[in-house]
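It is worth pausing here to work through a concrete case rather than discussing structure prediction in the abstract. The textbook approach is simple: state the sequence, then state the predicted structure, then interpret. We follow exactly that order.
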Amino acid sequence: MRSVAEILKEIPANLEAGLSDDAVAQSLVKFGHNRLTPVPREPIWRKFLEKFDEPIIKILLAAALLSIVVEVFNQERLIGGLMFGAIVAVLAVGFAHPSLRRWLPAITFGLALVAVAVSVLVGHPAYEGFAVMVAVVLATGVAFASEYKSDREFEVLNARKEEIQVKVTRKGGFTTIPLEQVVVGDLVLLEMGDEVPADGRLLKATDLMINQSLLTGESVPVRKRPASLEDTADGPDHPACLYRGTQVVDGVGLMFVTEVGDATMIGQIARRLSAEEGDEADDATEETDEARIRKKLTISKQLTPLQQKLSDLAGLISKVGYIAAIAIFLALMGRGLVTGSLTSSLGGAAKYALDSVVYMVIIIVVAVPEGLPMSVTVSLALAMRKMTRANSLVRQLVACETIGSATVICSDKTGTLTQNKMRVDRAWWDGQLFLRDTEQWVRLNANDTWPRALEGHGPADWIALNAAVNSTAHLEEREAGAMVPVGNSTEGALLHWLHENGIIYHRL
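Step two, the predicted structure:
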């Protein structure tokens, strides 16, 4: 991170009045916009193929493939044998190659489709395997379509993140600008609840506490204080350095922006994540800076309770099915030895062994509930559509199950149950109570004894003086001349009250 002195040498920034229009233009040309390069969107085909990675879906694919191969082999030995050898070879190559291993379920799906086509061409359609494939396609297709539509809706919402307003000082006055319009050299006012919009160094601070857990993993806020303009040291541990994405939890401060966009720390980490998108060497034992930024910029892939239950169920079904199939196969082999079916002739023994394998595959296929993935997916898709109609967007299909298990929802009332506005509704001094929207309040506005300038020393004068000079909020003039409080809501309400009564608070 550059020092304040270095920035002052490159652009005509002012530490009191902020940037002029010409200085803003120079800063944009030299340092660019405060815009992060978006993380590359996952291709649609990859999202679709990842749907085959569900535990029960994988069992269904394996059972369908076995059923089709055995059916063809039972009718056409040569073709069935060649098909079995080709399938084993393809799966072996996929398992041996690290980059293909994650796509084994999708490869299995493709092989099953080819096997179904071969069974039709040889005149012996594998109806059982085809039915399982239809169930797989329906389950994965419904889940993919629902989540794809939800992702597009969330992208529209995420685009509004960049519309966050930032409080800055420019041309000697206070104003608010969109986050993307913050440039190097801007003076940014930070207050409790704000998110730091860019990297910078602190010029002024009063009890400023910053939550840097995004970068350091430490949940305890750290106190920040100014340093010299020539200071070049940086890092989250530096008391004067502030970083984009961290949160102000207490106090107020004035920050001088030194890095914007991809040059910020979070921008550099995001670029590294984009470069390593195809790398699977994630460290699950320690949450690094990159892991925390990944959680902020991408969708969480952690298993939900429903996914975990389905995974456990799939594991249990596969174990019980395989154990039962092997037990039945061994029992049939023992029966063949006792009855002489395995010892009569080589051809008879081969036919008996093949029939036993067919029985074993049938047991595995029957043990897998083909309708379970489809029923779960359809139920969640219907729940997602119902929540969307109620203006509740769901990014991941299985999240419907998570929210469906909630018994209590705690919601912030500000902006939800209220208007997110504060105002002075009544004032009291000298034994008199003045109420808004009453004749008393009107008389108060027109009362000659009300101080139009702070020349007197009555109770009203001291109230106005304290509300003005001790405030960290500001009034910003918006369209149609409306004055809107910006900053601390309580202090902003007091300033708005002074403005209503003609007090020129900014001259104090």
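Step three, interpretation. Residues 277-286, 442-455 have pLDDT under 50 and may be disordered. The longest strand covers residues 199-211.
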